[in-house]
Amino acid sequence: MLQLAVTRRLEIVGEAATRVSPGRQAASSGVPWPQVIGLRNRIVRGYDAINLDVVWSIVHDDLPPLIDEVRAIRGAISEQLANDVDRLCDHLPELQRQHPERIGEAVRS
Length: 109
Known about the structure:
The protein is mostly helical. The chain has five helices and no strands. The chain is elongated, with a radius of gyration of 21 Å.
């Protein structure tokens, strides 16, 4: 059961990696995107040929630094989003002065 659970989780990680945009992948070069996605493909297409020693090595050796890297990316995204919101808030008063009728329309919508 544990083997099935571990391989399923690795499959989910790989599937999530396929949904990361090419731009974000390029900006996050610390993640071995092709290998993460390739592992998912290997699990999905060749489960009966999965080498559990390799899976254990991945979980034991490769997963901890990957988790750290993904957490750093998430933190950077959160920080970038916070900065974008701050910049937007900084510009809103000027926009409101320039186009008060448009701001009112947006709020009423």
